[in-house]
């Protein structure tokens, strides 16, 4: 019988991926802190699969109530067995219906939840709006996407339909995917007079996960919701304002074409640094030492610009052999720039320095 965290369960014909345990671990850390702050934790696990998330929210976060739902009635025997103790304790229920029906049922009854976990397969667009209707103001929503090709610019016409945004391909496209998700949720929240704040954003290599907090008023602005421009000629990025979209250009002499634009998308902070700091402390307390490096990397990148540079891009553009990543980061920091490793790509640098500066500093080493 598989074990994850404090949960023992069977898989059978239900969905379970050991590789995404990291996303469940981070969700558990955030949920524990949320309950510590508010005193309550009511959870919707909208696509529960084998039920491991529901079990862990109950056993490790002491959730007061869990609505475990899955659209596949064929897994009823598996789910009933895995969650029998949860149900027997009077701490939850199981349903088998399309997740959007769950969310709208909550809204119609005015029953709003503290944490809505939407671990979907493929593009998340059917749920980026509807999950808001089931979430308490101040509560958390945890979204998934596994449709990397759309959000990384390989299918821009599809991204227009999925995110109401045009996605182009460039070196930091995996970060772009997370920002498209956040931006689309922010837009839908704004239409309801609400806002969102990213708690953390995670790319695992095949899965994109974003946790946001729902705010009582809209925080959508030109500063945090807009476009990312990339010049294929020189490799530099810009975040042009809405009012200058028709005049976007690059001063470089390497390309006769204007920069490509992706967006609109979220341009603000990817993570909430203080909350991540508390997650780090909690992970240490629980002995989850294998999560500390990731969380510290995410905390370090939280306030930096909405893009990063792969080391290979710096070397290719500078026509040089690169120094060690750690040396380049230290050299940039010594010159007053912020620089760190992006969690999206361990062979990259996330910095407020331009690519030209990275190349110049790299050559000096």
UniProtKB/TrEMBL annotation:
One of its GO terms (molecular function) is tRNA binding. Transmembrane segments: none annotated. Keywords: Methyltransferase, RNA-binding, S-adenosyl-L-methionine, Transferase, tRNA processing, tRNA-binding. The keyword Zinc does not apply. GO terms for biological process: tRNA N2-guanine methylation. PANTHER family: N 2 ,N 2 -DIMETHYLGUANOSINE TRNA METHYLTRANSFERASE, TRNA (GUANINE(26)-N(2))-DIMETHYLTRANSFERASE. This is tRNA (Guanine-N(2)-)-methyltransferase. The lineage of its organism: Bacteria, Bacillati, Cyanobacteriota, Cyanophyceae, Oscillatoriophycideae.
